[in-house]
């Protein structure tokens, strides 16, 4: 699960090894690798000539970054206002209970990661849960298990 | 290519679509349409067309805003006006294609309305529907009508005409045109756009920057997403005009990463502009150079604040700083910078095309033009709307949105997201403009409008917004970091039924401190949801505190679920679905909920068959039920 440094170099080069694109580089690596390892952070620091403290500063500030591995299927439950008034906290609770992890956590088999977000911008279809890139709108608590089950059986 | 040549080419392509020889299907495939199943509908369309050997064009368009009717497909058939169909599924759309394209049955039962000249029997004109009639479409003029990935569609619909006109004008004259229009910042604060530009233009600096703020973070708001997904060129055109007026040569769009489709559409639109010479060096032969870069956000709400946003573009933590100096004097990398919201930029393009006076005919004395709103929550017709400023709140909720879902009672409408407030029923006559909303304790904000019914608890809503702002507070200044935390603790206590009477006064005191002492807009407005709910719904707070009762039956610690013994049929559905095994029972036995184990999730109420309706939710009362499961009566 560790992205090879040569691959990271490729990404850094894509942005011209320019430190002005630090956040973009981190986002790119996060997307490819699903987390930022300690080695990767050190490597960014060396290649982009940015102090490691500053990289850590940024990697811990923005919610898009994760310093621990995330699962293959990212489960995102929207807790935006519109979803909230339509019962999204119950959806999150059910997902938590089904996967056995809290928001921010990853299942031990690295299959699922769970997180909550504050709005995905498809409020009219709340409550919404996204698995990978697939949006599941107008959810009810009783459907959550079924949906997650279908992803669990994929492989 | 000159602009005339580009226009000619674009019109040719557009007319082929309008005066078709073969049918054309336009599918609303913005994020909202997709989450409603638009991609499956497209698959079904392609399959059916192939099956019947029909030659037709299928185009993905943005969102017309009728989210309640998603997924939507418009069909243009030669010799007929365009017809919009809604609430489609893969099965229905296959049948529709067979019925309409082969058997020429227009299926009025599935149609929402027709668009354009002519008439179709049994189908109303789309823009005469109550949801669309009170609306004006200025910013959303192209959303849902054109292919957002095709610049020719935008050009053919008067796109970039504003830019062509602007490039022939003096920068001062452009700013005067914007002044005439009365346009104010659509990000929420409502600062006059012309004034912001004028201050930045007067700064003497060889380097200036333009930023488009597309970090739409308010929960319950998606106007900017829809606009960028449905008509990205209108925003980009506005930016080029603004850059020319101010004298900036570099622009940035800061768009949040949670909007992958909007980012994708922007990344498609920019090279198309470059190809036509609408951006880059020597734009349309004017000698003016302007470049645009797209910066992706990384998930921090505070980055919607302008100084935090600039820090983030610079590759730092997105934390706000004190103003002055204002960005117009010292912004991005210390250079004069002008930041406007997505919607403001889209207005600029059309103002330059049609003139400031034309724009100013809409709206009120101090709030001109139109405003988009994400109309969501407990209403019949949710969606993205654009209404003239000054329209009454009630008109929006009862006419455009068709009233409250399932005939329930209206309780409050929340505007302005976590920075705004909840307005009660006696303010339904309030005109929607910057001043009126501020006077009522809320704000215009970027355009979230969340309607709440009698089943919504205001304490819960206040707690919800505060937990949001508390988590998103960057932690730089004390009033925001500590104050919101203390307020949240009190609210949590009240919603658990552990509140004290003096808590309300304490909340108000803290709220005023946070408001006046915080560094940036996030903290300065964070207490608004709490203050307005106390102002308009004080009795509900008191009921939580004094009677330990949640009248809307929402606050979990104050509600309980019971299974009514005379209604339970012993079907075991709730027992099997209970996530914590808190229900005991068996076949033909009256089920009993173990109140100690119950987590008040409501699943049992959800799954209990309607014909039994045996599960009830109560607050502040106890219902007598058997201790152990006993046989159902009559069995």
Q: State the secondary-structure class of chain A.
A: alpha+beta
Spans of chain B of at least 5 consecutive residues whose pLDDT stays below 50 are none
| Individual helix count of chain B | 23
Mean pLDDT metric of chain B: 94
Largest sheet of chain A: 4 strands, mixed
What is the multimeric organization of the chains shown?
heterodimer
Give the number of helices of chain A: 7
Describe the strand arrangement of the main beta sheet of chain B, using strand numbers. Answer: 2-1-3-4-5
Distance between the termini of chain A: 18 Å
Instruction: Summarize the helix and strand pattern of chain A as letters.
Output: HHHHEHHEEEH
* Helix vs. strand class of chain B: alpha/beta
Question: Which two chains touch over the largest interface?
Answer: A-B, 45 and 60 residues
CATH architecture of the largest domain in chain B: 3-Layer(aba) Sandwich
Mass-distribution shape of chain A: elongated
CATH superfamily of the largest domain in chain B: NADH-ubiquinone oxidoreductase 51kDa subunit
The beta-strand count of chain A equals 4
Largest sheet of chain B: 5 strands, mixed
The beta-strand count of chain B equals 18
Distance between the termini of chain B: 86 Å
Q: What is the count of structural domains of chain B? A: 5
CATH topology of the largest domain in chain B: the name is: Rossmann fold
